[in-house]
Amino acid sequence: MRNEELQNKARQLRQTIFKVICEGQGGHIAGCMSVVEILTVLYHRILRVDPKNPEEPNRDRFILSKGHASVAWYAILAQKGFIDEDELATYGQGGTRLGGHPDKLKLPGVEASTGALGHGLAFGMGMAVAGKMDGKNYHTYVLLGDGECQEGSVWEAAMFAPQHKLDNLTVIIDYNKLQALDRLDKIVGLEPLVDKWESFGWEVCEVNGHDVAELEETLSAVPFAANKPSLIVAHTVKGKGISFMENVPIWHYRLPNDEEMKIACEQLQIELK
Fold first, then answer.
1. What's the order of all strands across the beta sheet hosting 61-64?
2. What is the Cα gyration radius of the chain?
3. 0.90 surpassed by pTM
4. What is the sign, positive or negative, of the torsion defined by CA atoms of 171, 175, 180, 186?
5. pLDDT tens digits for range 215-257
6. Which fold has domain 3-268?
7. 115-135 b/e with 16+ CB inside 10 Å = b?
8. What tens digit of pLDDT does each residue of 194-217 get?
9. How many CB atoms lie within 10 A of CB 33?
10. Alpha-carbon distance 161 to 124, whole Å?
11. Rounded Cα distance, 79 and 16, in Å
């Protein structure tokens, strides 16, 4: 799949996310938009997963620790064939399997139920440790939100992984610099982020989180060092693709009004019902 095709998949993913959230009348549009290219490259280029055999023992593991971006995950799972695309229309409806946060017990391809922020990395470490103990060659990837990196549990896990030489573990931080109510640096800043993770024993690389070529090249290079876990700091834009949402904290929660809907649909080149 060429980079142009990946970019087209990412464009389609943004359209799907917006339609599903708006028609379902709930969700986190901006936080979903910042991870689009990351998910696109992971699922179309990197992860060794099979929608026809989602429990294959040697499959790679992926954990969306920032579970409030669940609609982005549902959309990519539909693109890959883990779920039927028609099921996306059930989001926000009674009896749906597609909750506000992903549920491992309901959906194929979901390795852990997430949404209580700060726990995804610990889940991923457990899977990585199990892989080492069982002699499996799968790789575990965890996508963290930058806001959840304020959680103490993340830093406990960050100490644990190098201690156990988990070079079969890669963490990607969606570093859009915003969280639910404001900018990170106005609440609890993370800088110097790279230095902190390196001091804990991780091998770190920074990328443009919206450049599919750069993401593919970087993710293909993990592990960055033998016997060390890998961390990718992906610099992203919250609300990417919708001009009035980009880098504006209020869009963590809000849904667009009628006028905003028209603008967003024009920019995303979609039609809503």
1. 61-64, 140-145, 169-175, 230-235, 203-208
2. 18
3. yes
4. positive
5. 999 999 999 999 999 999 999 999 999 999 999 999 999 999 9
6. Rossmann fold (3.40.50)
7. bebbbbbbbbbebbbebeeee
8. 999 999 999 999 999 999 999 999
9. 28
10. 10
11. 10
